[in-house]
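Bug #77: duplicate submission created two jobs. Keeping one. Sequence:
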Amino acid sequence: MKKLLFILAAVLLGSIGLQAGNTITYKATAILTGYNSSLKVGETTFGPRITSHEFSDSIGTITCAGEITKIDNNAFQRNPSLRAIEIPSSVKTIGTYAFYSCTYLRDIEIPSSVTAIGANAFYNCASLALVKVNWTDEQSIVPIDNTVFRQIANGAILLVPAGTVNLYRDVDGWMDFSNIVDPVQITYTASAQLNRTWLSIGAVTFGSPIVAHDFSNGVGTIVCAGPITKIGANAFLDCFGLTSIQIPNTVTAIEMQAFYNCNVLTSIAIPSSVTTIGYNAFYNCTGLTSIEIPNSVTTIEEKAFAFCTNLTSVTVNWPNAQSIVPIGDDVFQSIASDAKLYVPMGTTNLYQQANGWKNLIITASTSTFVYTASAQLTGAQFNVGATTFGPAITSHTFSNGTGMIACAGPITKIGTNAFYNCSGLTSIAIPSSVTEIQYGAFSGCSGLTSIEIPNSVTTIGQSAFNKCSGL
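Kept job's structure:
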């Protein structure tokens, strides 16, 4: 696998794309002659007659008298100089032994126009680490002989259209690839394309090799050949033009200095898949004014948000002492002096005793609350999307006897029969934004032993605390 990643990182061309027409473009260390002079002017190796073959600065261009429809048998056989080639989207057949023993060919894209690939077409292309195909349905996928890709790079990747992995796993020849993957992407906005070593073709900054990096109208798209599992170390280091980024919900780690010095990054959403935020991850991101750290995070390393001088709002949702992530005093070093830490209602005292967190101005969030119970409360009224508490519920978690419900905005009510007959409920912190406790809200909550009603409440409905025998 290490050898495969080295090949991808070092040489994937990435700059040649598919085009229909009468030319073939290739990259090589010298002009190609082909098998038995198959690439000379006058030959019909590609269907119509070759009219010119030019080579300059490692790029060769073969022009034909008409639209190219085939790559003939043996066309490029035994050409170790060949590094990459563009197969036109008008090609219908790739002949037997067409690229046999092109031992330094690193990647190939086969257009969806191809309806037949001959035996041994890419046999012994020992460096071939990435094969991209474009057929999108079962009927169009071309079955191939198991010799077509024999003796290519160990662990070679077959990159298929999104959602078609299982289709290729059932087709002769293609099923022999051990790595059949969907393309996955990260998008960002910036003043210009981000040109960093870690964002170039072949880099494994995000857990899988980068196979494309495009930029248009202020939006960049980085495509990977496989799952995106991390934002790697130094990924966007000193990317001064980066203004926003969408992190996929498959990412588990934001590694050291991932966004170091991204001083115009104004917003970022950390997905609930992330467990680790590394050393200096957001150091000196002076454009950030707010950040929400999801419950999934279990490790925040030194100076992760240090010198984010305009960071005034930090939101966390760990509901109990056991789940609060311990941090050092330097994690939020030199952020805004009036920065507030928003925590779930009923947990302020826990954060006031927690190292690192207690240095911030701790404020109870009005969009979350915690409760204690013998088990997680169930029922449609507690499901994501329910409006039991005013704004829609966005999450409901439970751990170590403590539940937490988060909503899309400030909680304004405890709805009708919200906790009806929840006998396992033992305590609840009602947010200070609540103005009404509606009919039967806590009726039958026999395990509830105490409750504090905030001054904001102006209405308490009939039977709101009926049969709360523990109160």
